[in-house]
Design a protein that fits this description.
- The chain has 228 residues and is an alpha/beta fold.
- It has one domain (29-226): Rossmann fold (3-Layer(aba) Sandwich), CATH 3.40.50.150.
- 30% of the residues lie in helices and 27% in strands.
- The protein contains seven helices and eleven strands.
- The chain has helices spanning 30-47, 70-82, 98-102, 106-109, 116-124, 174-183, 197-205, and strands spanning 4-7, 13-17, 22-23, 59-64, 86-91, 130-134, 137-142, 155-160, 184-192, 209-214, 221-226.
- The strands form two sheets. It has an eight-stranded mixed sheet with strand order 6-7-5-4-8-9-11-10. It has a three-stranded antiparallel sheet with strand order 1-2-3, with no helix packed on it.
- The longest helix is centred in the N-terminal third of the chain and has 18 residues, at 30-47.
């Protein structure tokens, strides 16, 4: 399936699939969306909770859709600012190509040129192995389907960044969210840009306590689920 690089509303790049009219990140602003959904309402929210008062305790993050590595990269940047220890797990069935990677402008747009080597390392490290990207940040990339995840109470946070339910409804079912629920530790959170009623109901059906939150630019709402 053809993929092309486009510029989003905040000047950052993303990958678009013309056949689906679907993008890896919001066309209104890839970086803005990533910070709003996954950092503000995911990582920072978790860090403000009682369960994460001790900053030296590693936080395990599972990303559903490693894709361009943007969410991973900004998490690494924020972890360095907040002095957090992060064990990051990125799941992706169809990794991007080297040419697509070269066309992404995240280090420039984020004014993080001093972290260019870290961004490159996120993509260069072999799959299915644990690697230390920087002090306090490890990464395991897994090339598999989301339905194949077998983790049990392994993660504190899930970034659910799959393609939208309009084009891949099978990724937003009760069956998938049951896998996500099992993968989270108690008090863990799942955040996603989606706010569809069917998605909220699927999350609730498997046990999540679901909140509607203000969405990123271009979206009225988003969802966050907590495992009690």
């Amino acid at each position: 399936m053809k993929r092309e690089i486009i510029i989003t509303g905040d000047g950052s790049t993303t990958i678009q699939i013309p056949e689906w009219n679907e993008q890896y990140h919001s066309k209104h602003g890839a970086i803005q969306e990533a910070y709003h959904v996954f950092i503000k309402h995911g990582l920072q929210h978790f860090c403000q909770s009682e369960q994460s008062e001790e900053s030296q305790t590693p936080i395990s993050i599972l990303e559903i859709g490693f894709g361009t590595g943007l969410n991973t990269f900004i998490t690494l940047i924020e972890a360095q600012k907040l002095k957090l220890n992060i064990n990051y797990n990125g799941v992706e069935a169809y990794p991007i190509s080297k040419d697509e990677l070269k066309a992404l402008n995240y280090t420039e747009t984020l004014k993080a040129e001093n972290s260019e080597s870290s961004f490159q390392k996120l993509h260069d490290t072999p799959w299915e192995e644990k690697h230390q990207i920087s002090v306090g940040f490890t990464l395991v990339k897994q090339q598999q389907l989301f339905s194949e995840i077998k983790d049990i109470e392994a993660h504190n946070i899930i970034y659910f960044d799959a393609f939208g339910a309009r084009v891949q409804p099978e990724l937003w079912t009760e069956a998938i969210f049951e896998i996500m629920y099992k993968a989270l530790k108690p008090q863990g959170v799942l955040v996603t840009y989606s706010a569809k009623g069917s998605v909220r109901r699927a999350m609730q059906a498997v046990g999540f306590i679901v909140e509607r939150l203000p969405g990123p630019p271009g979206k009225r709402e988003m969802l966050r689920g907590t495992k009690k």
